[in-house]
């Protein structure tokens, strides 16, 4: 009996967007209008690439970025929740599927000593170039019309489950914890026995309730959370059953 916990990262594990938080490193803690207005829907990764070039051009170094990123607060109750999952790793496999990047997530999890809680992190690959600039790439290519060009979370989840099955691992239940519009695609893949946990007041919750109103509700159960302690209460019930 094993459960799979799937977490988004921005506004779910941490209470901010890691990509916009890095702007605190920019001169005057803001980006020039031309750069800010260069974002095109569905092309966030390319936009962040330009942001990282701007930071590099302005002499922002890796250690300053790291210091800034590790000050991001976790969402309410999340430190307790991740501690609880860490103590019960024999029951929970735990992955992150995020549109952030490997460098940011790695820094933040390691600084708080939570990296061992997660079995795998699926996010856009990032690295520092030989000139000290942070670079970011698309996570993968996909054919899903609903998702941003660089990442379909449903495809990630499907491939992960297939790989686990090949290893002989199947899950009693999948618990999907997220907040954003790009979390809807994987939630629609979940089955009747699974559970989606959208963060209260965020886009995912709104999109799930719109589907219910248009009489095409998601198959899985839905439990809204405002503090990660709500999630922990549910998991405690789950492992008692």
Automatic annotation (TrEMBL):
Cofactor(s) demanded: Mg(2+)
Example GO molecular function: metal ion binding
Keyword terms of this UniProt record: Hydrolase, Magnesium, Metal-binding
Positions with a binding annotation for substrate: 19, 99
Sequence positions that bind Mg(2+): 8, 10, 179
Pfam families: Put_Phosphatase (PF06888)
Catalytic center residues: 8 (nucleophile), 10 (proton donor)
Annotated coiled-coil segments of the chain: none
Transmembrane segments: none
Domain of life: Eukaryota
Family per record: Belongs to the HAD-like hydrolase superfamily. PHOSPHO family.
The name this protein goes by in its record: PHOP2 phosphatase
């Amino acid at each position: 009996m094993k459960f799979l916990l799937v977490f988004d990262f921005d506004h779910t594990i941490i209470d901010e967007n890691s990509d916009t938080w890095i702007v605190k490193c920019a001169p005057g803690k803001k980006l020039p209008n031309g750069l800010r207005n260069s974002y095109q829907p569905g092309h966030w990764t390319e936009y962040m690439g330009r942001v990282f070039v701007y930071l590099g051009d302005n002499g922002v170094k890796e250690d300053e970025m790291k210091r800034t990123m590790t000050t991001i607060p976790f969402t309410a109750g999340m430190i307790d929740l991740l501690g609880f999952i860490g103590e019960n790793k024999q029951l929970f496999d735990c992955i992150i599927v995020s549109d952030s990047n490997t460098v940011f997530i790695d820094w933040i999890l390691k600084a708080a000593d939570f990296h061992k809680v997660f079995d795998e992190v699926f996010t856009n690959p990032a690295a520092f170039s030989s000139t000290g600039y942070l670079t970011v790439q698309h996570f993968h290519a996909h054919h899903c019309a609903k998702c941003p060009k660089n990442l379909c979370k449903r495809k990630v989840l499907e491939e992960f489950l297939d790989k686990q099955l090949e290893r002989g691992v199947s899950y009693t239940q999948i618990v999907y914890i997220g907040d954003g519009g790009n979390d809807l695609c994987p939630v629609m893949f979940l089955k009747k026995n699974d559970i989606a946990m959208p963060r209260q007041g965020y886009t995912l919750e709104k999109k799930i309730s719109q589907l219910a109103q248009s009489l095409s509700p998601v198959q899985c159960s839905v439990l809204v959370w405002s503090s990660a302690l709500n999630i922990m209460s549910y998991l405690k019930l789950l492992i008692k059953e």
